[in-house]
């Protein structure tokens, strides 16, 4: 489809809604369901298990939202990776006491770093892995190059799941009314697909001189998966 030949960024409603706005609360619930339907928690867990060679001590998620996504990831990894210190970087602190307790129940500690992603990464220390889910598509290519340069300087492993920019995901994104998605999600989902990735677009934005091996490919019917690992080939 010609409209998908190039990335096209447009404003998403959820980004500008107040944290407690009922439409935002409902849309975050929609996103939790959509992540499950896309299989993204399992894709990220698999990428981490594959590329992080030793049980990590510290993991950072950027654009973390309410922590629900990483909780699903953590539950798949906690038996092999006990006592991980997880940092959730986001502009808003959406982590509830109940979700914090759920992390603690599987042996992971969690803290929220409330900041703009560029400011947060500028102040970040070293992490064993950094992750992102449905976050990178919010940025244009120039901003992603800057973001990737900083990520490459603080971690040996970065993994991400993003919308696959293709006809079938776009069609599916326009049919979310059938699963009860609210107006915010129904607006934002097609915008996310049009801003998503295909081919080796993310790989082309990663710093070429950073010494990372890159893996990028479609996973499932909706997701573009990306991994960068320092040193050896993935």
Topology:
Blueprint: H1 22-38, H2 40-51, E1 58-62, H3 68-77, E2 85-90, H4 97-105, E3 109-114, H5 117-123, E4 129-133, H6 141-154, E5 157-163, H7 167-173, H8 183-194, H9 201-205, E6 212-219, E7 223-230
Parallel strand pairs: 1-2, 1-4, 2-3, 4-5
Antiparallel strand pairs: 5-7, 6-7
Helix pairs in contact: 2-3, 5-6, 7-8
Task: Give structural notes.
The protein has 234 residues and is α/β, with parallel strands linked by helices. The chain has one domain (2-230): Rossmann fold (3-Layer(aba) Sandwich), CATH 3.40.50. The protein is 40% helix and 19% strand. The chain is built from 9 helices and 7 strands, in the order ααβαβαβαβαβαααββ. It has a 7-stranded mixed beta sheet with strand order 3-2-1-4-5-7-6. It is globular, with a radius of gyration of 17 Å. The two termini are 32 Å apart. The model has no long low-confidence stretch (mean pLDDT 95).
């Amino acid at each position: 489809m010609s409209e998908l030949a190039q990335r096209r960024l447009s404003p998403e409603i959820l980004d500008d809604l107040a944290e407690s706005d009922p439409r935002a609360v409902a849309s975050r619930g929609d996103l939790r369901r959509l992540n499950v339907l896309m299989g993204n928690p399992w894709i990220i867990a698999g990428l981490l298990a594959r590329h992080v060679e030793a049980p990590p001590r510290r993991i950072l998620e950027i654009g973390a939202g309410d922590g629900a996504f990483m909780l699903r990831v953590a539950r798949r990894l906690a038996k092999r990776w006990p006592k991980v210190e997880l940092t959730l970087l986001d502009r808003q602190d959406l982590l509830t006491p109940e979700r914090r307790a759920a992390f603690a129940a599987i042996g992971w500690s969690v803290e929220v770093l409330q900041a703009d992603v560029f400011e947060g990464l500028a102040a970040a220390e070293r992490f064993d892995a950094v992750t992102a889910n449905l976050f990178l598509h919010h940025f244009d290519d120039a901003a992603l190059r800057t973001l990737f340069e900083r990520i490459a300087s603080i971690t040996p492993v970065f993994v991400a799941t993003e919308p696959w920019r293709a006809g079938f995901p776009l069609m599916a994104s326009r049919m979310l009314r059938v699963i009860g998605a609210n107006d915010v999600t129904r607006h934002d989902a097609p915008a996310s697909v049009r801003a998503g990735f295909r081919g080796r677009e993310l790989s082309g934005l990663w710093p070429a001189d950073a010494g990372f091996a890159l893996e990028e490919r479609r996973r499932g019917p909706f997701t573009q998966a990306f991994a960068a690992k320092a040193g050896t080939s993935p």
